[in-house]
Protein backbone atom coordinates (compact mmCIF):
# COMPACT_ATOMS: atom_id res chain seq x y z
CA UNK A 1 0.00 0.00 0.00
CA UNK A 2 1.53 3.39 -0.97
CA UNK A 3 2.46 5.78 1.79
CA UNK A 4 0.36 8.95 2.14
CA UNK A 5 2.03 12.14 0.87
CA UNK A 6 3.99 14.31 3.25
CA UNK A 7 2.78 17.46 1.46
CA UNK A 8 -0.12 19.58 2.65
CA UNK A 9 -1.92 22.41 0.91
CA UNK A 10 -0.62 25.05 3.37
CA UNK A 11 2.92 23.74 2.77
CA UNK A 12 2.48 24.06 -0.99
CA UNK A 13 1.21 27.61 -0.58
CA UNK A 14 4.06 28.59 1.73
CA UNK A 15 6.67 27.18 -0.66
CA UNK A 16 5.11 28.89 -3.67
CA UNK A 17 3.99 32.30 -2.45
CA UNK A 18 6.46 34.64 -0.71
CA UNK A 19 5.25 36.24 2.50
CA UNK A 20 5.81 39.70 1.03
CA UNK A 21 3.45 38.98 -1.86
CA UNK A 22 0.67 37.82 0.48
CA UNK A 23 1.11 40.98 2.57
CA UNK A 24 1.09 43.18 -0.56
CA UNK A 25 -2.12 41.60 -1.86
CA UNK A 26 -3.80 41.92 1.53
CA UNK A 27 -2.97 45.64 1.69
CA UNK A 28 -3.82 46.25 -1.97
CA UNK A 29 -7.31 44.77 -1.71
CA UNK A 30 -8.06 46.95 1.30
CA UNK A 31 -6.86 50.05 -0.54
CA UNK A 32 -8.91 49.18 -3.62
CA UNK A 33 -12.05 48.74 -1.53
CA UNK A 34 -11.53 52.11 0.15
CA UNK A 35 -11.12 53.83 -3.22
CA UNK A 36 -14.31 52.22 -4.48
CA UNK A 37 -16.23 53.39 -1.42
CA UNK A 38 -14.94 56.94 -1.84
CA UNK A 39 -15.79 56.97 -5.56
CA UNK A 40 -19.39 55.89 -4.85
CA UNK A 41 -20.19 58.79 -2.52
CA UNK A 42 -23.10 60.89 -3.69
CA UNK A 43 -24.72 58.17 -5.79
CA UNK A 44 -28.45 57.56 -5.41
CA UNK A 45 -29.44 55.02 -2.74
CA UNK A 46 -31.60 53.20 -5.29
CA UNK A 47 -28.62 51.78 -7.16
CA UNK A 48 -25.82 52.36 -4.65
CA UNK A 49 -25.23 48.65 -3.88
CA UNK A 50 -24.73 47.91 -7.60
CA UNK A 51 -22.49 50.94 -8.05
CA UNK A 52 -20.32 49.98 -5.08
CA UNK A 53 -20.10 46.38 -6.31
CA UNK A 54 -18.90 47.42 -9.75
CA UNK A 55 -16.47 50.01 -8.41
CA UNK A 56 -15.01 47.45 -6.02
CA UNK A 57 -14.38 45.13 -8.97
CA UNK A 58 -12.52 47.74 -10.99
CA UNK A 59 -10.56 49.40 -8.20
CA UNK A 60 -9.62 46.12 -6.52
CA UNK A 61 -8.58 44.61 -9.85
CA UNK A 62 -6.23 47.54 -10.39
CA UNK A 63 -4.71 47.34 -6.91
CA UNK A 64 -4.42 43.53 -7.16
CA UNK A 65 -2.66 43.91 -10.52
CA UNK A 66 -0.14 46.33 -9.00
CA UNK A 67 0.56 44.01 -6.06
CA UNK A 68 1.19 41.07 -8.40
CA UNK A 69 3.47 43.17 -10.60
CA UNK A 70 5.51 44.39 -7.62
CA UNK A 71 5.79 40.79 -6.40
CA UNK A 72 7.08 39.55 -9.80
CA UNK A 73 3.96 37.40 -10.16
CA UNK A 74 3.45 38.17 -13.88
CA UNK A 75 -0.10 39.58 -13.79
CA UNK A 76 -2.37 39.27 -16.79
CA UNK A 77 -3.54 42.47 -18.45
CA UNK A 78 -6.52 44.40 -17.10
CA UNK A 79 -9.38 44.05 -19.58
CA UNK A 80 -12.89 45.14 -18.66
CA UNK A 81 -14.62 42.58 -16.47
CA UNK A 82 -11.92 39.99 -17.10
CA UNK A 83 -10.23 38.15 -14.23
CA UNK A 84 -6.76 39.38 -13.31
CA UNK A 85 -4.42 36.55 -12.37
CA UNK A 86 -0.76 36.04 -11.62
CA UNK A 87 1.65 33.19 -11.07
CA UNK A 88 3.79 32.34 -8.05
CA UNK A 89 5.45 28.95 -7.80
CA UNK A 90 2.95 26.27 -8.81
CA UNK A 91 -0.04 28.50 -8.02
CA UNK A 92 -2.08 30.70 -10.31
CA UNK A 93 -3.44 33.49 -8.11
CA UNK A 94 -6.70 35.33 -8.70
CA UNK A 95 -9.30 37.19 -6.64
CA UNK A 96 -13.01 37.80 -6.18
CA UNK A 97 -15.42 39.47 -3.76
CA UNK A 98 -18.37 37.94 -1.92
CA UNK A 99 -20.89 39.03 0.69
CA UNK A 100 -19.77 37.45 3.95
CA UNK A 101 -20.94 33.83 4.14
CA UNK A 102 -21.93 33.45 0.46
CA UNK A 103 -18.99 31.38 -0.74
CA UNK A 104 -21.12 29.70 -3.40
CA UNK A 105 -21.00 33.03 -5.27
CA UNK A 106 -17.46 32.19 -6.31
CA UNK A 107 -18.83 29.57 -8.72
CA UNK A 108 -20.76 32.11 -10.77
CA UNK A 109 -17.76 32.77 -12.98
CA UNK A 110 -17.24 30.17 -15.72
CA UNK A 111 -13.60 31.23 -15.99
CA UNK A 112 -12.97 30.64 -12.28
CA UNK A 113 -14.53 27.18 -12.53
CA UNK A 114 -12.26 26.37 -15.48
CA UNK A 115 -9.21 27.58 -13.57
CA UNK A 116 -10.13 25.50 -10.52
CA UNK A 117 -10.04 22.21 -12.43
CA UNK A 118 -6.24 22.27 -12.04
CA UNK A 119 -6.75 21.51 -8.34
CA UNK A 120 -7.72 17.95 -9.20
CA UNK A 121 -4.00 17.24 -8.68
CA UNK A 122 -4.07 18.33 -5.03
CA UNK A 123 -7.43 16.93 -3.98
CA UNK A 124 -5.74 13.72 -2.69
CA UNK A 125 -4.16 15.81 0.08
CA UNK A 126 -7.56 16.17 1.76
CA UNK A 127 -9.24 13.01 0.46
CA UNK A 128 -7.35 10.02 1.91
CA UNK A 129 -8.90 7.48 -0.44
CA UNK A 130 -7.05 9.22 -3.29
CA UNK A 131 -3.59 9.17 -1.69
CA UNK A 132 -2.27 6.62 -4.17
CA UNK A 133 -2.89 9.09 -7.02
CA UNK A 134 -0.95 12.01 -5.60
CA UNK A 135 2.12 13.47 -7.22
CA UNK A 136 3.61 16.89 -6.55
CA UNK A 137 1.62 19.27 -8.77
CA UNK A 138 3.00 21.59 -11.40
CA UNK A 139 -0.21 23.64 -11.49
CA UNK A 140 -2.75 24.67 -8.87
CA UNK A 141 -5.06 27.62 -8.22
CA UNK A 142 -5.65 29.80 -5.15
CA UNK A 143 -7.95 32.79 -4.72
CA UNK A 144 -7.74 35.83 -2.49
CA UNK A 145 -11.35 36.34 -1.41
CA UNK A 146 -12.51 39.67 0.02
CA UNK A 147 -15.58 39.12 2.20
CA UNK A 148 -17.79 42.17 2.65
CA UNK A 149 -20.69 42.84 4.97
CA UNK A 150 -24.00 42.20 3.27
CA UNK A 151 -25.14 45.71 4.25
CA UNK A 152 -23.72 49.02 3.07
CA UNK A 153 -24.53 50.35 6.54
CA UNK A 154 -21.98 48.03 8.17
CA UNK A 155 -18.29 48.57 7.32
CA UNK A 156 -18.91 49.43 3.65
CA UNK A 157 -15.44 50.87 3.08
CA UNK A 158 -13.41 47.70 3.64
CA UNK A 159 -13.67 43.90 3.65
CA UNK A 160 -14.77 42.19 6.85
CA UNK A 161 -12.01 39.69 6.11
CA UNK A 162 -9.65 38.71 3.30
CA UNK A 163 -9.05 35.00 2.96
CA UNK A 164 -6.78 32.77 0.92
CA UNK A 165 -8.81 29.89 -0.46
CA UNK A 166 -8.05 26.80 -2.54
CA UNK A 167 -11.15 25.28 -4.20
CA UNK A 168 -11.74 21.72 -5.31
CA UNK A 169 -11.77 20.99 -9.02
CA UNK A 170 -15.47 21.86 -9.41
CA UNK A 171 -15.35 24.86 -7.09
CA UNK A 172 -18.13 23.29 -5.04
CA UNK A 173 -16.04 23.08 -1.88
CA UNK A 174 -12.80 24.33 -0.41
CA UNK A 175 -9.68 22.22 0.09
CA UNK A 176 -8.18 24.99 2.22
CA UNK A 177 -9.50 28.34 3.43
CA UNK A 178 -7.96 30.69 5.99
CA UNK A 179 -7.94 34.43 6.81
CA UNK A 180 -4.81 36.04 5.43
CA UNK A 181 -3.77 37.40 8.84
CA UNK A 182 -3.81 33.83 10.22
CA UNK A 183 -2.05 32.45 7.14
CA UNK A 184 0.77 34.99 7.51
CA UNK A 185 1.54 33.57 10.94
CA UNK A 186 2.45 30.27 9.30
CA UNK A 187 5.57 31.87 7.84
CA UNK A 188 6.72 32.64 11.39
CA UNK A 189 6.26 29.00 12.38
CA UNK A 190 8.84 27.77 9.90
CA UNK A 191 11.77 26.25 11.85
CA UNK A 192 14.66 28.67 12.03
CA UNK A 193 18.22 27.40 11.73
CA UNK A 194 20.58 29.26 14.00
CA UNK A 195 24.35 28.82 13.92
CA UNK A 196 25.99 27.88 17.18
CA UNK A 197 28.34 30.81 17.75
CA UNK A 198 29.30 29.80 21.28
CA UNK A 199 33.03 29.05 21.62
CA UNK A 200 34.09 27.18 24.76
CA UNK A 201 37.06 28.58 26.61
CA UNK A 202 39.41 26.40 28.65
CA UNK A 203 40.52 27.56 32.08
CA UNK A 204 44.18 28.43 32.30
CA UNK A 205 46.23 25.76 34.06
CA UNK A 206 48.12 27.03 37.08
CA UNK A 207 51.38 25.22 37.85
CA UNK A 208 51.50 23.86 41.36
CA UNK A 209 54.50 23.45 43.64
CA UNK A 210 55.73 20.12 45.02
CA UNK A 211 53.60 20.59 48.13
CA UNK A 212 50.42 20.99 46.05
CA UNK A 213 50.17 24.77 46.47
CA UNK A 214 50.40 27.33 43.72
CA UNK A 215 53.86 28.96 43.48
TrEMBL record:
Q: What is this protein called?
A: Alpha/beta hydrolase
Q: Which GO terms describe its molecular function?
A: hydrolase activity
Which superkingdom? Bacteria
**What are the alphabetically sorted keywords of the record?**
Hydrolase
Amino acid sequence: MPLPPTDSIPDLLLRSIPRGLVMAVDEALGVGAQRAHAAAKGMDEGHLPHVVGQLRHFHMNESFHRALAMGDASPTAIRGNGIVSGRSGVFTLARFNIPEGFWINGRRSHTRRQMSFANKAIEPLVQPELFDQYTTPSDAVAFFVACFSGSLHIQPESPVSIQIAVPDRDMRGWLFREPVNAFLQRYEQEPAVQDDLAKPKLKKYKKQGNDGTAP
